[in-house]
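Hi, here's the filled form for the chain we discussed.

Project: internal
Contact: R.S.
Residues: 557
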Amino acid sequence: MYIVVFYGNLLSLNYKILTMLAIYTRLSKEDAESTSIKNQFREGEQFAKDNNFNEYKVYNEGEGVSGGADIKDRPQLFKLLQDFREGIIKAVWFRNQNRLERSSSTWHVFITQAKKNNIKVYFNDKQFDFNDPQENFFGSVTSAINQYQKDLQSAQTIRTLRDNVAEGKVWSIVAYGYKSDNGYLAIDEVESKVIKDIFDLSLSGVGSDSIAYKLNNKKTPTRKGAKWRGATIQNILKNTLYKGERKYSGQIYKAPIIISADYWQKVNDNFKKNRNNSGKKVDHKYLLKVVIKCGKCGRNYYGRKRASGKDNAYICSSKRYKELKCDNKGINIDFIEDLIWSQMFLQKGFLKAYNRFIVSNKLNENVVEIKNSIKEKEAEFKSYDNKINLLLEQLLIDDYNEDIKGKFKNKIKAISIKKNDCKMLLNNYYDDLKQYDKSNKISTESVENINLNNASFNTKKDLIKEFISSVIITFHDGSYYIEINFKLKGMDAIVFQAPFSKKYAIQINDLNIDDIDKIGKQEITKNYFLYSPTKELEIDIKLNLNAYNYYKNHIRG
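And the returned structure, exactly as it came back:
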């Protein structure tokens, strides 16, 4: 380029190649003070002066940025690469190679772009020669060493944390009952009294849920203002920190003692006896665990069996927390388990529902619908990818101000959220399609011929888990409504109604006038379940032909 210069009345044309120097600075948390941003800038400025770079531009990444971070997480390095492509920068100076990177992938990307755009690269005062095989080799070796040093520093950080723990220093969140005293773990006088009360109550026979309830009633604060829970109490009682044993990275270190070791052990030996205040621990098996749910609040039902054999029931898990208000009733374990097993498997209720589903042709219709949905969502997902790539490309090429860049990033973020939502829906559709494919492989003839009368508990549980997605219990106006949902999408649920006495249950979504006649003749079909532990033979069965519509529209609606 020619520069026009006037000397008095004389005109002179000077030929000069304009070269803008980039000075890149970065400081990570692990760097020594001598590597400060100020020192890097001073040395880079001196380099520019000594080498006749009249113009320079500083790309200061700032402090606390790791050389192992991706380029997208280093905005100044990202901007530097943009300026390479725009021709704004023709030379770049680093104090040394580890200011550029401590990652082999970053080294490769940077050197490729620099070579492509004819950029002179200086590490300290030495220019990197792209055409020298030996220098390229040593550059790669240096990059590998830089990454090794970063990994080494990470290991050293872990060792430092371990040393800090050994010295009694605090890291991360301090456990309840303790505080940080100038960086060292110390006992919190107020919270430690709560810890002692918890241990005392446990040893006196109070269960974890009851302890939590007492603390909530006394308005004893937690750290985050949440309510005390039984699980929190259990974690406190089991935590060895309170007896002075602090665990970190597989080793045990000494800590301030709130509970003596003997007392801690005594409480933990007694701890199992306090579970649910139920005395001796008895192992129980629950056939409907996980699948049985509350129709009013949506929580899981859990099994509760007494050692005495009385009052065995599945009840709403909200009953564990007295502050949660759910008035749904529990249901007798033997009754509901016998109903599900007898009607769905022994009497082939599931297979009949499945066959009706196949005959109705809903299976093929649903498969076609799902495949169309997958096709639409895949195209939508691809369009989001294209939009993001176009925005990134535009952001990389054009020199926008920070306000415009912020808008670009917000737009990319918004599209990314939509893309993730789309991916979740796609995965759901894929899962549904797999379930339909699986349904086509069900051999109804072979299942019909299987003798399940003497099936083991595990066999029963496996079959229920394979075909039934949920059993929803709702008690309303003196009756239980039992809704059985299947894992195969599109299959109609089966709903039973049972009186409070639980002597029988009737499938109410399949009632007709003929059923009334059969019951009058005492010809109970497989749509009815009789449960009579007391061997009562005469049962007054009452039918309401509108029960299902009422349940669907007013109870579950």
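Let me know if anything looks off before we file it.
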